[in-house]
Each structure stands twice: as structure tokens, then as C-alpha cells.
Design brief:
about 650 residues, 5 domains, alpha+beta, 6-stranded mixed β-sheet, 5 helices, Immunoglobulin-like, elongated, about 40% strand, 7-stranded mixed β-sheet, disordered N terminus
Length: about 650
């Protein structure tokens, strides 16, 4: 019995040692969070980057969660970047609050996890607000092992100790020494401080993408040496000497960041004061980003929302630019990024959306996506009437069966299209929207034939949008659209329904309108013909009035003399005949004018009908005519016979 107890005790101890070995080994793997740089001096106004790093100390991890605390009165976060991070999955996207002085993150990665000493979690870009000692620390951190248990292997978090100092200003140029009291700011006789300018980086408060800056200064007389140094601090003592002295310096391939060119002159009396010229360089574009299309549950929405946001570690984001389809680029303020951005109203169809993010140095990163706007199922408007109120009736031909209007005038003053449209439409089950307006597009057909039937001219012509109007609908769905000042050409007046959201239907109704002019030769011939008629009319009028005066004189003479009794009746009779001939001529001229105009219109109409019949015959030679086409053919043949009989 005692032997069995000893065996059980040995077995229990072995199990305990095994458990301690396993869990003890797991606990021994302890990881550390730290910052880089962990200590540094920065000047007020400087922008600098701090990397959040992890040393797993032989542990394999798959998740880190923490909050970074910083003094909000001394520092502010400009942006952060996940570029180069060991994490590809983010349980909680990094976010920061400059008011609270915090930045939080929760990132992870799949198996096999990460094991290393300098694993980058993310980068944070700070700006120095004022001088002081800033301590950046980790709060509530957790580093979880890739062991299937999510064991927290966090051991310690090393803070960053930053010394923030006031910005040092370039020393001013000393005043000219007084004969009685030399200036205390410079040794008498030494040269003044250089006045530096730059054609490539003129403004010290701005950022530039050019990393080859050019600097110039004027060389006073008796300066024997120029000393320069480029550094990250103002008033750093220049150590690079140039003899003979030069008045220009070109730097090449300067790294990104804020820099100072420190310079001073020297002569036989000694060294002059230092001038520091500040310049900022940023050659890296903003971070890549994606555009997310929201409102996917309703593709009929004419103003879909997009979500996009980039970041820039150094100079910071300045603005965005967007282009929709073939439209122009327009600017979007950087503050609007990261929030749903509502597009301007769009017509149905597919649009290519391009967005560019610009930093303060002018570098840019672009992203593209496509959106689909589906048409709202509004039935096409019904055209009831087409009116041309300021055009003479005899100059208008309306073919109602085809809703076509031919206007034989150079300029149409006004066209009125009246119709009816549905007042409500269901876009999906249980969702009904109101139809509030009718959109009217006026399309001009390019290179269309100005003679012949309109339907033939419309076939292959290209359409160009010349104007758009929008009219409200009445209580019963009726509408009235007015279009004015249409010059010579063929037009399509296209009407669509529009709902309360601004969505446009794809069903539309067309009114085809042709404004027909005359050729230059025809206008010239008509002008000559009218000029001849005016001249002949003047001659007839003159003669008519002259014979009447002669007859009146003869009557007076006969009455005075009472001797020419036979002459007076003769003259009176002849005068009456002449006046009758003149009036008959005027009447015949009017009849000829009306008759010639009617015949011209009949000839044009007869040619149009003949062309349409030829077209229908060609169609009939390839296939059977549709009932509507056969009906049109019978009508046209009837009209052709009628016109032929009228001419005979």
C-alpha cells in the first residue's frame, strides 16, 4: 500500500513539473512596446514622425491593442500611417483625439503571426505646439500570443521623452556702426549678415516637392570667405568654407523634412553674424486610399455617397480633387474626407469616378472607382400638343402621326410642348416616390440634311445637347415646357420624368423639330425678283396717278371752254380703262404670288412623300412591313394621289 502511494506521488509530481514547464515557458516569452525615436530635441513648429514598434522577445504574436497618450498642450497629431505595418487586419482602425491627447489602435494578423525585435505597428506624425518636456506613453496595452489561447505576453512599454524648445529666429542684420558707439551685435568692421533668397523655395512657411533648392545672396565688397552648413536647426555654426566667396548655392537630392541653410560672411576684420534660411521639402505623395461607394441598397439614388480618405505624414493633406466621367476636375476640402460625400445629381448610367489627394507640397495620389445609377421606372411623358405661338401659320407644317413639326422660318421665337406624366412611381416593393418635374433636353442633330422628311434626317445624325430646361408638373401631372431661339437645323425635344430625389427616368418622349432656311442663291434670286416687282409697281402707280390728273385737267378745260364735248367722254373712258387695267394687274400679281407659293409647298411635300414611300419600299424588299408601317404607306400613297390631282 505504501508503495502504491509513493508511485502516485511520483506521478503527480511529474505532471506538475510538466505543467510548470509548459506554462512557465509561455510566460517567459514577454514582449515590449517602444517608440522610435525614444528621445529627441524638436523645435516649436516642427513636424516629425514617431514609429510605434514591438519587440516580441522570441514570442510569436498575432494582436496588439493599446492607447498612446501624449500631452495635448505640447503636441498634436497631424496624421498616422499603417504603411509597412506587420498587421494586415484591424479590429479597431487607428483613431486619435487631439483634445484628449490619445491615439488608439487594435491590429492583428493571421497565423503564423509575427516574431521579431523591430516590428512596426504604425507611424504617427506630430507637430510641436509649444516648448516643454513631452512624455509619450502606452496606456492599457495588450500583446497577444499566437498560441490559440490569446495569452497576453506584454511585459513593458517604454515611453518616449521629447525635449521641445522654442523656435530660434534668424539673427537680424546689424545696424550700421555709429562713430561714437559701435553696435554691440557685431565686431566693428565685420560684414553684415547675408540676406538669402530662393527662387525654388521662396516661402519658408510652405512645403515644396522640389528637392534641389537654389539659394542666392548679394556679396558685399571686401568679403573674403563664405561659410555654409545645412542642418535641421537654425543658427547652426557654418563649417564649410568657400574661398573665393560665391553668391549662389545649389543643393541636390535633399531629404524630406524641415531644413535650415545657415550662412555667414567673413573678411579681414573677422566673422559676421549668421543668417538661417528655413525651407521645407516633401517629395513623397500622400498615402494610397480606396473609394467606397455607399447606398448600394438603392441604385436609383441620383446622388450616391462616396467615402474616401488619405493621409500624409510630413506636410499634411491640402485638398482633394474629383472628376466624374468626362466632366471637369473640382476641388474638395480636406476636412470633408473620411465622411460620406454626396455627389451632384447624376443621370442614369455608369460613371468613372477619379479622386486625387494633394499634400501641401503638391504631391498627389489618385484612386478610381465606378458607380452605377439605375433609372427610376417613371413612364415616358405623353406629348399632348406642340405649339409655335409666334410663328405664322402658313409657315408651319405639323405631321401629328409622327409628332414632327417642320418650321419654314430662319428663327423660331418660341416652341411650347404640352403633355402629361405619372405623379407617383414605385422604385421597389413598399417604396413609392413622387414625380415632381419634367426635364427637357434640346438636342441638335449635327450634319443632318435640312431637306426631306425629318425621320430620315434623324437616322444617322449625331446629337449635341444645346440646352436643358426643367418644368414642374401640375396636380394632375400635366406640364408645359417652353423653348425659344432655335436657329436653322433639326432638333429633338426630349422629355423625361424626374422624381423628388432628382432621379431621372430612362423612358422619354421625343418631339422632332426642323427649322428650314433658304440657300444663299435662293435668297438672292428672291431679292432680285422682289426688286423688279417693286420697280414695276412704282411705275404703274405713277402712270395711274398721272392719267387721272390729265383726265381731270381735260374735264376742267372742257367745262371752261364748253367747246370740246366729244373729247371729254373719250378721255374719261380711256382713263377708266387704264385704272381698271392697273387694278387688274395688282390682283393678278397677288394671285400669282399665292399660287407660286402653294405650288412650291406642294412640290416639297410631294418630294417628301415620294422619299418616304421609296424608303418603305426598300424595307418591304427585305422584310414584311409592320402594321404601323403598312398603315403609314397607305396614308402616304393616298396623300400622293391627292396632291397629284390638285396639281392637275
Amino acid at each position: 500500500m505504501r508503495y502504491k502511494k509513493l508511485k502516485f506521488l511520483e506521478f503527480s509530481l511529474a505532471i506538475c513539473f510538466f505543467i510548470l514547464f509548459i506554462f512557465g515557458a509561455r510566460v517567459a516569452d514577454a514582449a515590449t512596446l517602444y517608440f522610435s525615436p525614444s528621445s529627441e530635441n524638436f523645435t516649436v513648429g516642427n513636424i516629425f514622425t514617431v514609429n510605434v514598434l514591438v519587440n516580441t522577445e522570441n514570442a510569436t504574436i498575432n494582436n496588439i491593442e493599446s492607447t498612446v497618450n501624449f500631452p495635448s498642450d505640447l503636441l498634436e497629431v497631424i496624421s498616422f500611417s499603417k504603411s509597412g505595418s506587420i498587421f494586415s487586419l484591424w479590429v479597431e482602425e487607428p483613431s486619435f483625439s487631439n483634445g484628449a491627447g490619445t491615439l488608439s489602435f487594435n491590429g492583428g494578423l493571421p497565423t503564423p503571426g509575427f516574431n521579431g525585435t523591430t516590428g512596426k505597428v504604425l507611424s504617427v506624425v506630430f507637430r510641436v505646439k509649444k516648448a516643454g518636456s513631452a512624455t509619450v506613453i502606452f496606456s492599457s496595452p495588450a500583446i497577444r500570443a499566437n498560441d490559440g489561447y490569446g495569452t497576453n505576453v506584454f511585459r513593458t512599454g517604454a515611453p518616449a521623452l521629447l525635449n521641445l524648445v522654442s523656435e530660434e529666429k534668424p539673427l537680424p542684420s546689424p545696424s550700421a556702426p555709429s562713430p561714437s558707439a559701435p553696435s554691440p551685435s557685431a565686431v566693428p568692421g565685420t560684414p553684415k549678415a547675408p540676406v538669402i533668397s530662393s527662387s525654388t523655395h521662396p516661402d519658408s512657411t510652405k512645403w515644396y516637392a522640389d528637392n534641389n533648392p537654389v539659394f542666392k545672396w548679394d556679396l558685399p565688397s571686401r568679403v573674403s570667405e563664405v561659410t555654409l552648413v545645412m542642418s535641421t536647426r537654425a543658427n547652426s555654426p557654418p563649417i564649410i568654407s568657400y574661398i573665393p566667396p560665391m553668391s549662389e548655392k545649389i543643393l541636390t537630392k535633399v531629404g524630406d523634412g524641415t531644413w535650415y541653410l545657415n550662412a555667414r560672411f567673413s573678411n579681414s576684420a573677422g566673422l559676421g553674424p549668421i543668417t538661417s534660411f528655413k525651407f521645407n521639402i516633401d517629395t513623397r505623395p500622400p498615402q494610397k486610399f480606396e473609394i467606397t461607394s455607399l447606398n448600394q441598397d438603392d441604385l436609383t439614388n441620383p446622388r450616391p455617397e462616396l467615402l474616401f480618405e488619405s493621409s500624409d505624414e510630413l506636410s499634411g493633406l491640402d485638398h482633394y480633387e474629383m472628376k466624374i466621367g468626362d466632366g471637369d476636375w473640382f476641388t474638395i476640402a480636406s476636412e470633408l474626407a473620411g465622411k460620406p460625400y454626396k455627389l451632384p445629381p447624376q443621370m442614369p448610367g455608369t460613371r468613372e469616378i477619379s479622386v486625387k489627394a494633394f499634400d501641401r507640397a503638391g504631391n498627389s495620389t489618385s484612386s478610381n472607382t465606378k458607380i452605377v445609377i439605375k433609372p427610376v421606372p417613371i413612364p415616358k411623358p405623353v406629348i399632348k400638343e406642340v405649339i409655335l405661338p409666334k410663328t405664322k401659320v402658313e409657315k408651319v407644317v405639323v405631321i401629328k402621326e409622327e409628332v414632327e413639326v417642320v418650321v419654314k422660318e430662319v428663327v423660331v421665337k418660341e416652341v411650347v410642348v404640352k403633355g402629361l406624366v405619372a405623379k407617383e412611381v414605385a422604385i421597389k416593393e413598399g417604396v413609392v416616390v413622387k414625380v415632381v418635374a419634367v426635364r427637357v433636353d434640346v438636342l441638335k442633330l449635327e450634319n443632318s440634311n435640312s431637306f426631306g422628311q425629318i425621320s430620315e434626317a434623324v437616322k444617322d445624325a449625331k446629337e449635341k445637347l444645346v440646352k436643358t430646361v426643367e418644368v414642374p408638373i401640375g396636380e394632375s401631372g400635366n406640364f408645359e415646357a417652353k423653348i425659344d431661339n432655335l436657329e436653322i437645323g433639326t432638333y429633338i425635344v426630349r422629355t423625361y420624368g424626374k422624381d423628388e430625389r432628382g432621379a431621372i427616368s430612362d423612358a422619354f418622349s421625343d418631339v422632332v423639330l426642323k427649322v428650314a432656311g433658304e440657300s444663299v442663291l435662293a435668297q438672292s434670286a428672291k431679292w432680285v425678283y422682289k426688286a423688279i416687282l417693286r420697280g414695276f409697281d412704282s411705275l404703274v402707280n405713277f402712270l395711274s396717278k398721272g392719267w387721272f390728273l390729265i383726265a381731270l385737267g381735260v374735264v376742267l378745260v372742257s367745262m371752261a371752254t364748253l367747246t370740246i364735248k366729244k373729247v371729254v367722254p373719250f378721255i374719261t373712258d380711256e382713263t377708266r380703262k387704264l385704272r381698271f387695267i392697273a387694278s387688274e394687274y395688282k390682283s393678278m400679281k397677288k394671285l400669282r404670288k399665292i399660287d407660286s407659293k402653294t405650288k412650291l409647298e406642294l412640290r416639297i411635300l410631294q418630294k417628301d412623300i415620294r422619299d418616304e414611300l421609296d424608303l418603305l419600299k426598300k424595307i418591304a424588299s427585305h422584310r414584311h412591313l409592320h402594321p404601323e408601317e403598312q398603315y403609314l404607306k397607305n396614308k402616304l400613297e393616298k396623300y400622293a394621289d391627292l396632291i397629284k390631282n390638285m396639281k392637275e
